[in-house]
Hints:
- This protein is mainly β.
- It is built from two helices and 28 strands.
- The strands form seven sheets. Strands 10, 12, 13, 15, 16 and 17 form a six-stranded mixed beta sheet that branches.
Amino acid sequence: MPLIRISELHCPRICVYFFPLELFLIVSPSRPIEGNTMTLTCKTQPPPQKLDTKLQFRFYRDGRALGLDWDSLPDFQIPAVRKEDSGSYWCQAKITSIKAKLSRRVQIEVHRVPIGNVSLEIQPPGGHLMEGEKLVLVCLVTGGTGDIVFFWFRGARGVSLKTKTQHSPVATFEIAAVRESDSDRYYCAADNGYGPSLSELVSVTVKIPVSRPTLSLGAPGARLLVGHTVELHCEARSGSPPILYQFYHEDVPLGNSSAPFGGGVSFNLSLTAEDSGNYYCEANNGQVAQRSEAVPLNVTVPMEDRNEVLTSAVIELLLGILAPTTLALLFCCWLKRKIGRRTAKDAVRNVPSPVPQESTYFNSQAPEQLHPDYENVNIVSGDEVYSLVYCVQQERPSAAESPSGTHPGDKDPSAIYSRLKKADFTDMDYDDVM
């Protein structure tokens, strides 16, 4: 039916009746998803542009008005719709105080996205803690919309630890100070209305730190001698196994041993003269290593062993001193033999003739026949000096026949004396040099 106007004769003011006006509520999108935007539109029939006046609109859900007041816009928007926004919706239009009829009700169902994968992370990573440290269990989900209910469980039987609801894909649960009894397997679950989704089991290991160990020495007697075997025993009174022990002698590592089920370990040491000194041990089960107090150990060396040690030391000292001297003597002998060979070669190659004008013989009154017995003496240091000596065989006259003053001093009459001639570099044997 067409729009009917009432003349001003019957109505002193302008009155417009929406007798044939129809209202329709449109929802976009038609299947809203939680977390997305949802728009409500109040559509009129005929359209507002064909009317001579402006309309005012308002929207309702389950009998409650949405928004603060009437609006000239036919649209109403919900930026992030939630599951709780599901319900019965309609709209209404009016001109000033004149109300139009309501639109038909529309039932809107807001849909959620189911939760995807659920995982549990542990801080610190790896799940290895010392007693007294803080444990953080982080539950994470992929996908899923709306409020999520998180659950934390302990052990395969699922002992409930904590429940938390929040509009977030991540939730945490903390244990401020763990104890050794908290060692177990943990998992979490998440639910946003489609049923809980579970994570995998994650192991948590809580250890007790090792206490300061004690080092003790076990020996066959009070007096420790070279050759005896002494037992070093290291033990920490408390600490979660396995425990690794390390033995030291004056900060030098001797060896290590592990106690897989706790307790202490021993280390056997066969004593030598150098084993006297301070000993200590360390215990470690994954946190900070604990060191024992130092224990002194004195090794007694028997008298015969001392003599052997002293003899060995003396021999080493003599070898250290005599070795260079022996080398020097061997070098001198070699040099002397080389010089002798050099002299012999000179004699064979060129037998020198006597030089009367350069030699004076004190015990010869007349020239005698010279025998080819000679000796060359060479001194290789500084200026080289050589002497050519001839031995003359003759009868020694008696004391009565010897003229006085012939033999000065106590000189042997059978000896030949000659002057020494300073060597000239031109007399060198170049064959030896080459």
